[in-house]
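Notes to self, Ca-activated chloride channel family protein:
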Amino acid sequence: MKKSSPILAVLTVIALLFATACAVGPAAPDAGARAPAAPRGFPDSARHDDTGAEMPSLDREEGEHRAEEPSTFALDVDTASYGYARRALQEGRLPEPGQVRTEEFVNAFRQDYAEPDGDGFAVHLDGARLPGEQAALLRVGLQTREPDASVRRPVSLTFVVDVSGSMAEPGRLDLVRRALHTLVDQLVPGDQVSIVSFRETAQVVAETTAVTYRSELHEAVDMLGAGGSTNLSDGLEAGYRLAAGAFREDATNRVILLSDGLANTGETAWQAILDRVSEYAGKKITLLCVGVGREYGDELMEQLADRGDGAAVYVSTEDEVRKAFTERLTTTLEVRARDAKAQVSFNPSAVESYSLLGYEDRALTSEDFRDDSKDGGEVGPGHSVTALYRVRLRPDADGRLATATVRWLDPDTRRPSEADRSVDVFALAPALWGSASVRLQVDAVAADLAGHLRGRGSGKSGTWSLAELIDQADRLAARTDDPAVTELATLLRTTRDLG
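result:
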């Protein structure tokens, strides 16, 4: 038998290997077929390894986005995160990083925005270059008109009060009772109140009662006592049923949950609770979450407020109760804009990339902005909403920097409206950070404090060191004569001392 050529044998092996690879490998695309789309959220220019996974960017930090990608988010007026962090620091402990939300730190401070002429929003844009960097801080400010207390609509309020055992600790149920007494005293003829308490089960303490029977409502509040476990779902369900039965088309219909947010019995699967809250929000019954307590279920209370078309506040002192339910009662209870969203578009010729500070839980896609079926945020009269962007500028940046647009629905008619404003690079002209708007500087210090509290132990923090932030806060406190800014400087020192 004739011997086969060595060259022929090698060629045969190669052919067999090639055929096997083709058999088990991916099928070749059809001629003219489109390449697979990048996963949702990946920029088209993202780098990928051999497996198709996205590789880390070589020139952008975590959280940065290309200027071509607009930033879209639901508005948020919650301040509970800052209120709780403040109490924790005052007690000599650091809040958990997951309980720190940057936007709520920023929005806890007074702003300087002019009001709009009508019932919508005034849009404000300003900013300043950051020291020693090819970067700037851009502030987007949205403001609604202050309420006219003399013409506010009636309110139909249903209080859902946590009276479980954990609420017996000082600073919980005792503070809630004082808050309820304060609120009842602020109501006027035409308003009505219902009260539900809950522990293992819910109990109706006061059926729907006209505020003219104020003494009976005060007696019902005094009867509230703590004990047992926390069936939050049963309390909310009973409260919403009572609110639905007392619903008035001409009134602001709101459930007010007062709790430490620590559900431990009944329906504790959050999604089921959140779905029911969303259902009632669609029927124009909104939710205000008032948090209390050293141990506080921040995450649940925040999500309840978001899904309930409402807001979350945290109170730990008599002064905070007074501010929430006396000085800013109408702002707390009424709604000026429903499903409000913001979208900021950057000029790619002036901006290389940007990062939004906070609003991680409120992020939306670009397509959601004008999709009125997508949930936004609810904003009351006299409210301001602030968003801060860290912007990486291109060399010799000039011309338009960014355009901010806000979209909202009328609370009654659900008719959509929009307002917008643009800002040029020239607006970042101040050469020294200290010459920028004082309120912008306060916002930046508050955001950086949140960055340090969120990033501790991870090597991530803010733009400035704690020592630099303390110096800035001291300087700003002297310029503003604002007790809240003085307190901010104290909280920064406490954060530094706690390490």
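- The two ends are 86 Å apart (CA to CA).
- Confidence is low (pLDDT under 50) at residues 1-60.
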